[in-house]
C-alpha cells in the first residue's frame, strides 16, 4: 500500500506541481487521503455513481489504474479550492470528495 501512495504522490508532483507543493507546505502527505481510496477502491470518499463507474472499468477492463486517475482528476477539478484551504479544511475536503458537487472529471 505504501508503494501505491508513493506512486500517487509522484504523479501528483508531476501532474499538479502547484497543488503538490501546497499540500506539502501544509504537511499533508498523500498518504493521509490516498490510503483510504486505495484500501476501499474509492467507496470511502466518492459518490456511488463514480464508484460504480470505476468498478466497471476495474472489472471490465481489468485496469486498477483508474483509482489513480480518479484521485488525480478530483484533485485537478478542485485544485483552486484546495489551494485556498488551510490544513484542517483541506484534510476534510479530501476525506470526503462526495460532498464536493458539480465535479466535471476528465478521466
UniProtKB/TrEMBL annotation:
Pfam families noted in UniProt: RabGAP-TBC
Record InterPro entries: Rab-GAP-TBC_dom, Rab-GAP_TBC_sf, Rab_GAP_TBC_domain
Limits of the Rab-GAP TBC domain: 1-62
GO molecular function: GTPase activator activity; small GTPase binding
Lineage, highest ranks first: Eukaryota, Viridiplantae, Streptophyta, Embryophyta, Tracheophyta
Protein name: Rab-GAP TBC domain-containing protein
